[in-house]
């Protein structure tokens, strides 16, 4: 019952009057999975087939430049985040390699993206839900762009700590640095300066 309550509260955070029937239909094509730290949950160059809801843990969205082989963490997803590899829908993507990796042990709900899309054509409530999830993802992406454009590294670090207060106990410092677009040495200096005040 608690699992259904978790899904119900999450889905109703997107559409507050979502019916029990729509929630039951959505729940019928998801299942609970557990993945270890460092598991690549979505491999690069794979077409979108599944979507995920994080019950617990941290998952990173990575981009790797094929020329320099440098790896970047584009996004950090934590509890109650819904995500999939939407970038795989871009057919002209040939420079970047994108993948999603567990930065900690993760428990997720895994669902069929194709079944969800099919049901959005048949069920108006699920269509609205899908639109709200996409709106939320778009706003989150815009917030990330704004952080990188208008905030300095210390402000980005504080914003991350505001979203995930115990992030330093959950993932490696070099991963936090990558997400903030700084070096681990710069992150160490930022933390030292903050905690010495």
Radius of gyration, rounded? 18 Å
Beginning-to-end CA distance, first to last residue: 47 Å
What structural class should be given to the helix and strand makeup?
Answer: alpha+beta
Shape: globular
Tell me what you see in this structure.
By secondary structure, the chain is an alpha+beta fold. Helices cover 46% and strands 23% of the residues. Helix 3 (113-122) crosses helix 4.
Give the topology, please.
Blueprint: H1 2-14, H2 20-27, E1 30-35, E2 40-42, E3 50-56, E4 59-65, E5 71-77, E6 82-83, E7 96-102, E8 106-112, H3 113-122, H4 124-150, H5 153-163, H6 173-180, H7 184-196
Antiparallel strand pairs: 1-8, 2-7, 3-6, 3-8, 4-5, 4-7
Write a concise keyword list for the protein shown above.
single chain; 197 residues; alpha+beta; 7 helices; 8 strands; 46% helix
Question: In a nutshell, what does this entry contain?
Answer:
The chain is α+β, with helices and mostly antiparallel strands and 197 residues long.
